[in-house]
Amino acid sequence: MKIDPKIYKILAIILIMLLVAGLATTLGILVNKEQKHRVQMGAVYDEAYYACLDGLGDLENKLSKLQVTRYPKTQKNLLQEAYTDCEVIGVSLARLSDKNLDSGKLLKFINQLGGFSYYLSQKLPDEPITTEENQKLIKLTEVVTALEKAFAEAGEQVAVGGSLYDELGEGIKTLQGVYDAFDQTTVDYPEMIYDGPFSEGLLDREAKFLKGKEEVSADTVRERLTSVLGEVGEQGETEGAIPSYLFSIGEGSVEVSKVGGYIVEYSTPHVEGEYTATVEQVINTATVFLSYIGYNDMQAVWASENDGLVYINFAYVKEDVIYYPDLIKVKISLTESKIVGLEAQNYLYNHTERTLESDVKSIDEITVKEGFEVSSKRLTVIPTEWNTEILAYEVAGSYNDSRYYIYYDAKTLEEIKVMRVIKDENQGELIV
Amino acid sequence: MSTNQKIMRYVVAPILLVALVAGVLLALNAFEFKEVEAEAASVLKKGSSGSLVKTLQTKLKRWGYYTGSVDGIYGSRTVTAVKYFQRSNGLTVDGVVGQKTAQALGMSLSSGSSGGGSYSSADLSLLARVVYSEARGEPYTGQVAVAAVVLNRVKSSSFPNTISGVVYQPWAFTAVNDGQINLTPNDRAWQAARDALNGWDPTYGCLYYYNPKTATNSWIRQKKVHLAIGSHVFCL
Fold first, then answer.
1. Closest-CA residue in chain A for B112?
2. By CB distance 3.0 to 4.6 Å, which of A92, A135, A386, B153 could disulfide with A48?
3. Which sequence spans correspond to the domains of chain A?
4. ipTM of the complex
C-alpha cells in the first residue's frame, strides 16, 4: 500500500504546531515561576538592606548618646542596646552577600563592635569606661556614621521604585562600592584588642601545657600510637596553633602534637549494635586510658549517652579543686567497649600549675533560693568568656524537677553563672 | 528526497522533539512531586528506616516492648513491638506509628529528633545535613572537619553568629546552592555533626575548605593550607 506523501506533510505540520504550543506553554510556566521567585527573593533582599540601614541608624544614635551621658547605668543600657543592634545588622549584612561580593570585613567590623560594646557593658557599672576606650568609641561612631551614609546612597542610586534585587547588577555594584571603601584605607578604625568575644587577642593563643616540651619524631609517635590504639595508616601534618602529625586510623584519624607527642584529636565512627559495656565501666576505661597517654589526675565530671555512644568530660583535679578550663572529652562506644574519640585542645591550651588565691569566703556562707535542693558543693576553677579564669564555688542541685549548676565567685560569693541540665528522653542523659 | 530521508525529516525528528518537550514537562512535574513527598513522610511503618526508627526502637526497648537490636530498620520485630505497645496503651493496633502512637511514645515525627547536649536539635539536624551534602564521600574525620568549619565560622567575627546564618549565607556552601542540603543525612553524618557540636575540631579552628581538584575560585587558593583530609584541604 502506498501512503500519500501529503499525509506525512500534514502530520508533520500538526506535530510542529503541537510542539510550538507545548514549548510556548512550558516557557510561559517557567517565566511565571521565575517572576514569582524574583519578587519573593527581591523582598527578602530588600528587607535585609533596609534592616541594615535602619540598624546602622539606631546604632549611630546609641553610640552618640553615649558621648553625652556620664551615668554608668545609662551607659550600660546604651551599650547593651548597641550590642543588640550589631547582632541585627550582622544577620542582615550576611544575607546581602553575593558570589562576587565579600562582606566579610564589614561583618567583622560590626561583630567586633558588638563584642566591644558587650564587653564594656559587662564591666559597667563597677568599672567605668576608660579615656582610651572612649577614644575608641568616638572613632567607631564616626565609622558607623560614614557607613550609614554610604549605605543610604547605595540605595538611592538604584532606580526609584525599583528593588535592589531587580537591579541586581547595579545594586550589587553599588554595595560593593561601600564594602570596598570599607576595605581600603579610607576608613580607619581602631583595632579592637581586648579579652572578649570576637577580639583579635584570642587568635594567637599558646598551648600552655606544651610549653618547654621536646619535639617528638613521627616514627616515635607512630610506634606509640600502634601500641595504644592499634595499627595506624597514612601520615600527614596539621599546621596552625598546635603543629601536629595526622595519621589515619580505620575510617577516622588521630592528630598528635609534634611537641610533646600528645593526642590532640581522635575520632572514628562507632558501630551500632548490642551493648557490651555499661557507662560506669567505660568511665573507668577512659580514666585509665587518659593517664596511660599522659593526661594525669583527670576526673569524669559529666557524661551523656546517646545511641550507645557515651561522651565523657574529664577535668583536671588537684587538691579537690576541679579545673574546668583543663577539659578533655572522650567518646566511647558501648557496643564495642572501646574508645572511639578524644578531644584535648582545651587541656593543651589551658593546663598549667596555678596557685590559687587564698582570700576566699567560706562555702557555708552560700545561700540558695528556697526550695532549691542542694546535692553537692565544691570549689572549682571555671573559664570565663573573656578567656580568663575565676575561682568559684559550684553548687549542684535540683529545683522543680530540673537539675542546675550554680556558680558563685569564691571571693565575693556573688552568683556568676547558672547552668541548667537540659534533659530529653530522646537525647543524652546526665550520668555523673 | 528518498523515502528514508522523508521519514527522518517528517516523522522521526518531530517525534524526538515532542519527546524532548514531554521529558522537560515531566521533569518539572517530578521536581514538584519530590517536594510533596518529603513533607508526606510523617508516618513510620514496616520498611521505614533512619534515625526516627532508631528513636522508636530505643524507646520500645527501654520500656520492655522490644527485644531486637536498635538498627534503625522497621522490620517485623519492630511491628510486633509497636502492636504490643498499642495494645497495652489502648491504641488502634495496626503496627504503624502515626500521630497518635507517636504522641503516646512521646516522640515527634515531623523532624529529626535525635538531638543531644545543650545545643538545639534543629542545629544538629542542620549541621548533619551540611555534612551529608558537602562531604558524604569523605573519610569520617573529613566529615567532622566540615561540621567544625561551620561552628568555627559561628565563632568568628567575619561570619554570621548562628549556625543557620552561616549555612545559609549566600554562596557560602555549594550544597545550599544546588539544593543538596535538603537530602536526608545518614547515620555517619549525624555522628560527625554530634562530634563537632561536642567540641571535636580536627582542623584546629579553620574557616574554609575546598577541593583542590575542583575549586575554581582563585581567591581561596591563596589561603595557606593547614591540613588535608580526604579530598578537602582546610585553611584559616
1. A426
2. A92
3. 5-202, 205-268, 363-420
4. 0.79
